[in-house]
Amino acid sequence: MMQGNRLKPMQGYGSRHGFTMMDAIVVVLILGIVAMVGIPQFKGLLSETRLNEAAAELISGLQYARRLAVEHQRPFGLRADASQKSFAVFDVRYHNHENSHLNDLPPVAAHGVVFHPLSKTPYSVDLDSTYDGARLVTVPAGGEIRFYPDGHSSETASDFVIQLGHEQRTISVDGTTGQITVS
After folding, report:
1. What is the pLDDT of residues 33-44, one digit of tens each?
2. I need a labelling partner for 73 at 20 to 30 A (CA). Which of 21, 42, 104, 170 fits?
3. Prediction pTM value
4. What structural domains does the chain harbor?
């Protein structure tokens, strides 16, 4: 019989299986400390991301209004309402009409609000509900900006300020060129 080749358990390891209660407590403590440090930074990052997305949405609306003015050779604009925390892209020739004009190019809803090129719904954005607390704190005088067939806007300079928490973004439109910048 071959008894000499039998494996023997290593000293100190044969009876231990899994983690002790102390091991589990140490792991939970470490995870708790990491969470205490990481969660506020993660929340700040999410808030900044929502603010940047809200600013990008407003910039898209401005660019779309400008593009429509150049493409259709007539004025289009963006109307912003700080109290409602919203904005809409509109066709100037229908901004006082309460009826839709769906057969026109581009089609418009009531008060000349043009349809969004992707969603095919009126291009009107509620920043507060879409971006969880983002709001317009500054809009141009009269609450709107108009773009003309050569791409310039109605004002020498127009500023929109979007805020979320303590952070904000300023979107400026150069009246002469229609160029849009963010700071």
Report:
1. 877 776 666 666
2. 170
3. 0.73
4. 21-93+123-182 (3.55.40.10)
